[in-house]
């Protein structure tokens, strides 16, 4: 890349300042970096880091310049985004930010997923709901500077003062009405030495795109079937491949007899890999049939013989003890348990790999493409620089896409058989050997006196969470000793925050290493910890004889949190009369620089409980695309219904019981609310926070609280269906 | 292996395949038609939902032999040229899709429902069993009603 050419009029942005620079190219192509004099400020100290969002922002800061934006002669604005699209709408969000600062038409902006680029360091990880928090400001800086150069180029062409020109719809406009498309100015703009108009991003009061509801930029591709996912790609010669996997979690192959399988129609190769035995054939149907014909003897995996009851005993033992003594009858206690939970994105895992003697090319959905690229390189014995990894849009993720198990597997098979392969996890493969939210046990104790909560202690015993997908690197990059303990403890403490004035509050985690495959599930630890908290809040309120909404409004410490609770109470008609067996439930969660409250109505009179209505209020500081934000929050309501009432994974004798959506009972249309409302709060902080994971804990807890009120029970184990 | 001829998205095609090969793999691996998605292979998630003679079916559990001489329509064949089917249009207007992976199946299921029940009730819509893991059900419901009101 590029000779950096500093532009002179960059404003300071908070404590950090970005320099934009032109990348040597015949078209206007720009990046941004932290300016040299302030880069040292990016080295974090403990006071800088309040939560996981801060950690991810700070870790990514030194390399946010790897945002690359180009104006093509065909008047397209092409963004190389170092993030993954999995349905959260990140490509639409960044297209909007670019359109805003460039004054381009949204339809002229094209967002591509950037190949794995090790120079991005910590800035190519899609996780922790931090993409917009990290890249909002640098993307604005880059594209505002591009606009200034385009205006200057037009001014030179027309011999007019740059200050007299305006921009709109991907073109520069002169006072006399002449126009020039950005594409026609791009080459000249690349040679502008000094912009003659301000290169600063817009004042937010002038926003016309950011903050307005927009449809997804890829919606037409999706509804016509043209959107391409990993297995839809036509990589010449790539042959369908499936892997016979062990009957117990992470078992290993002892011996294999493939004599029958090799002779079956369409079978091209049988390859032993560390995780099982791969079969490559002309079609996936033939590959699966041959897989079933393999005769394999398996060694047991690390939890062979172990079942849920054994795991629960170990989790209970791992929860650290309380510090404070109970206060007799002035104590509210609860014990909770949360099941393992498969991410179950509708697109199963998979990868296409083409490994040659001196290089490899991999196409796969990946939220952490740099560690994925490194893992492929290590697997096939190539330097990382010899591996090209193309991230492909993912069909849902919810945390699953952080791991990239299919990539090295496909690469190993391709290397062994000397041809490109497309490797597919079947749904049963991903249920049995995919990753899961770790199961957890929670012991919570609150004490109170005269209506005041004096102490709140929450102890967690959880199956070890695997964070080796890049989060660990982030924590390492921020400096050893920043917070005590290994990665998981650090992430736990970065994500736990009690939003209420509850006196002495402590959260402690005890981990149980089991060797089963885990991965962060939407909301990481908060998906269980904060759910238990919000159930406890209802129970404390009940003990004190107070209304759940009034109790929350009186004790939430932040105005934003109180505002979203008030909003759902008002919009959802909190306290309205409902028939017997029906009830409302409410909950709130604060994280990712935002907060969300959820109110649901639940009907417990049928054969299974149904949430009939959901009202959500969300404050993310500043919503870039309210329509996309609404979709995410409505989505987590369905997650909350599913995880609280219906779906979870069980372990029987070292194997996951569930195989598909028959027994993994994720909510269908008939389990979803007939009415869902999402209220996006006006910009509060002005800075966009995270969205994807924010709403889940509140949704799951609101469902639990409504169920408790409708049935007069105290739900303790999730999913409630067992 | 025998040959099977059927009408795919308006045009006759002939494939050479074992009789029990599921249509999903005939479509995807032999014909390169990738709109119908693999999500479970056992007819449960319904991401592959397409039409057999206009009715919803799941190619992942339908042998190719059963489709011989029949009319098969995938998401690629739902629009009339550049004119979207009313359900596709409603999907755009409600901005239904999130990750998009299940949406071809959802749209085909909705179109089949509307073909038999032009004014579906909430209970009718609740019979659609397709999984949407992103939880777009509320917008699917609105889009179906919008298409019905057309």
Helical fraction of chain B: 25-40%
Q: How is the largest sheet of chain A built, in terms of strand order?
A: 11-12-9-19-16-17-18
CATH structural fold name of the largest domain in chain B:
Ubiquitin-like (UB roll)
What integer is the average pLDDT of chain B? 98
The CATH superfamily of the largest domain in chain B is: Beta-grasp domain
Q: Report the average pLDDT across residues of chain A.
A: 91
The CATH class of the largest domain in chain B: Alpha Beta
Shape of chain A: globular
Oligomer: heterodimer
Number of strands of chain B: 5
Biggest chain pair interface: A-B, 63 and 56 residues
Largest sheet of chain A: 7 strands, mixed
Question: Secondary-structure map with pairings?
Answer:
The complex is a heterodimer of chains A (722) and B (150).
Chain A: E1 18-22, E2 29-34, H1 36-39, H2 52-60, E3 68-71, E4 77-81, H3 90-102, E5 109-113, H4 131-158, E6 166-168, E7 171-173, E8 179-181, H5 182-190, H6 219-223, E9 239-244, E10 252-257, H7 259-262, E11 267-273, E12 276-281, H8 284-293, E13 295-299, H9 308-318, E14 331-338, E15 341-342, E16 350-355, E17 360-364, H10 369-380, E18 387-391, H11 406-417, E19 421-424, H12 427-433, E20 436-437, E21 440-449, E22 452-463, H13 471-477, H14 487-495, E23 504-512, H15 526-543, H16 548-555, H17 559-571, E24 582-591, E25 594-603, E26 610-619, H18 626-646, E27 651-652, E28 655-656, E29 675-680, H19 696-711, E30 717-718
Parallel strand pairs in A: 4-5, 9-19, 14-30, 17-18, 22-23, 26-29
Antiparallel strand pairs in A: 1-2, 2-3, 3-4, 6-7, 7-8, 9-12, 10-13, 11-12, 14-21, 15-20, 16-17, 16-19, 21-22, 24-25, 25-26, 27-28
Chain B: E1 3-8, E2 11-16, H1 23-30, E3 50-52, E4 55-57, E5 71-73, H2 86-93, H3 103-116, H4 122-126, H5 137-149
Parallel strand pairs in B: 1-5
Antiparallel strand pairs in B: 1-2, 3-4, 3-5
């Amino acid at each position: 890349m590029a000779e950096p050419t500093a532009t002179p009029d960059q404003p300071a942005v908070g404590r950090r300042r970005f320099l934009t620079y032109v990348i040597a190219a015949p078209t206007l192509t720009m990046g941004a970096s932290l300016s040299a004099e302030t880069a040292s400020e990016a080295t974090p100290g403990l006071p800088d880091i309040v939560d996981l969002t801060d950690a991810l922002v700070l870790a990514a800061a030194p390399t946010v310049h790897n945002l690359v934006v180009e104006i093509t002669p065909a008047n397209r604005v092409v963004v190389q985004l170092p993030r993954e699209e999995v349905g959260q709408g990140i490509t639409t969000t960044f297209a909007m930010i670019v359109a805003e600062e460039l004054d381009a038409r949204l339809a002229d902006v094209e967002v591509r997923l950037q190949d794995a680029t090790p120079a991005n360091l910590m800035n190519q990880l899609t996780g922790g709901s931090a993409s917009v928090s990290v890249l909002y400001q640098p993307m604005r800086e880059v594209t505002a500077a591009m606009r200034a150069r385009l205006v200057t180029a037009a001014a030179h062409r027309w011999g007019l003062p740059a200050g007299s020109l305006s921009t709109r719809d991907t073109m520069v406009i002169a006072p006399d009405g002449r126009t020039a498309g950005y594409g026609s100015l791009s080459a000249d703009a690349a040679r502008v030495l000094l912009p003659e108009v301000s290169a600063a991003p817009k004042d937010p009061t002038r926003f016309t795109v950011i903050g307005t509801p927009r449809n997804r930029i890829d919606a037409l591709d999706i509804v016509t079937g043209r959107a391409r996912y990993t297995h839809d790609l036509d990589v010449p010669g790539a042959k369908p491949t499936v892997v016979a996997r062990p009957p117990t979690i992470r078992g290993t192959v002892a011996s294999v007899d493939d004599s029958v399988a090799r002779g079956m129609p369409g079978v091209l190769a049988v390859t032993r890999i560390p995780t099982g035995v791969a079969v490559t054939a002309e079609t996936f149907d033939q590959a699966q049939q041959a897989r079933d014909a393999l005769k394999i003897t398996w060694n047991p995996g690390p939890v062979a013989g172990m079942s849920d009851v054994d795991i629960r005993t170990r989790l209970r033992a791992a929860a650290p003890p309380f510090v404070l003594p109970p206060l007799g009858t002035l104590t509210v206690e609860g014990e909770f348990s949360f099941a393992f939970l498969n991410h179950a994105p509708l697109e199963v895992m998979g990868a296409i790999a083409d490994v040659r003697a001196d290089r490899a090319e991999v196409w796969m959905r990946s939220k952490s493409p740099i560690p994925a690229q490194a893992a492929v390189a290590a697997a096939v014995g190539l330097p990382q620089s010899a591996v090209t990894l193309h991230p492909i849009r993912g069909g849902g993720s919810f945390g699953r896409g952080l791991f990239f198990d299919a990539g090295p597997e496909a690469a190993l098979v391709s290397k062994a058989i000397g041809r490109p392969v497309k490797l597919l996890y079947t749904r049963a493969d991903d249920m049995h050997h995919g990753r899961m939210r770790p199961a957890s046990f929670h012991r919570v104790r609150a004490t109170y006196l005269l209506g005041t909560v004096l102490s709140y202690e929450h102890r967690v015993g959880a199956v070890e969470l695997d964070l080796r997908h890049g989060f660990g690197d982030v924590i390492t990059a921020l400096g050893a000793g920043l917070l005590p303990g290994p990665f998981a403890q650090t992430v736990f403490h970065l994500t736990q925050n009690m939003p209420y004035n509850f006196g002495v509050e402590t959260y402690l985690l005890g981990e149980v290493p089991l060797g089963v495959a885990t991965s962060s599930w939407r909301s990481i630890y908060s998906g269980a910890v904060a759910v238990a908290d919000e159930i406890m809040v209802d129970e404390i309120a009940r003990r004190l004889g107070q209304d759940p909404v009034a109790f929350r409004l009186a004790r939430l410490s932040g105005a934003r949190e109180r505002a979203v609770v008030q909003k759902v109470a008002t919009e959802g008609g909190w306290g309205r009369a409902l028939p017997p067996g029906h009830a409302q439930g409410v909950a709130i969660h604060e994280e990712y620089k935002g907060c969300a409250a959820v109110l649901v109505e639940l009907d417990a009179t049928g054969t299974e409980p149904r949430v009939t209505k959901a009202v959500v209020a969300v404050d993310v500081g500043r919503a870039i695309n309210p329509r996309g934000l609404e979709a995410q929050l409505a989505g987590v309501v369905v997650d909350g219904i599913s995880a609280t009432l219906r779906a979870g994974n069980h372990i029987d004798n070292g194997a996951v019981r569930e195989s598909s959506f028959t027994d993994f009972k994720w909510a269908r249309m008939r389990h979803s609310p007939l009415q869902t409302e999402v209220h996006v709060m006006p910009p509060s902080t002005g800075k966009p926070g995270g969205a994807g994971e924010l709403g889940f804990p509140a949704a799951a807890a609101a469902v639990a609280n409504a169920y408790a009120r409708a049935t007069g029970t105290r739900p303790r184990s999730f999913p409630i269906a067992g | 292996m025998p040959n099977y001829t059927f009408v795919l998205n308006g045009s006759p095609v002939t494939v050479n395949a074992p009789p029990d090969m599921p249509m999903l793999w005939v479509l995807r691996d032999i014909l390169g038609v990738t709109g119908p998605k693999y999500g479970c292979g056992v007819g449960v998630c319904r991401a592959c939902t397409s039409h057999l003679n206009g009715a919803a079916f799941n190619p992942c559990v339908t042998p190719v032999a059963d489709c011989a001489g029949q009319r098969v329509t995938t998401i690629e064949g739902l629009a009339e040229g550049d004119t979207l089917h009313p359900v596709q249009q409603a999907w755009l207007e409600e901005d239904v899709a999130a990750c998009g992976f299940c949406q071809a199946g959802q749209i085909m299921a909705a179109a089949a429902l509307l073909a038999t029940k032009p004014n579906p009730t909430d209970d009718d819509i609740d019979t659609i069993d397709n999984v949407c893991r992103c939880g777009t059900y509320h917008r699917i419901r609105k889009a179906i009603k919008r298409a019905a009101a057309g």
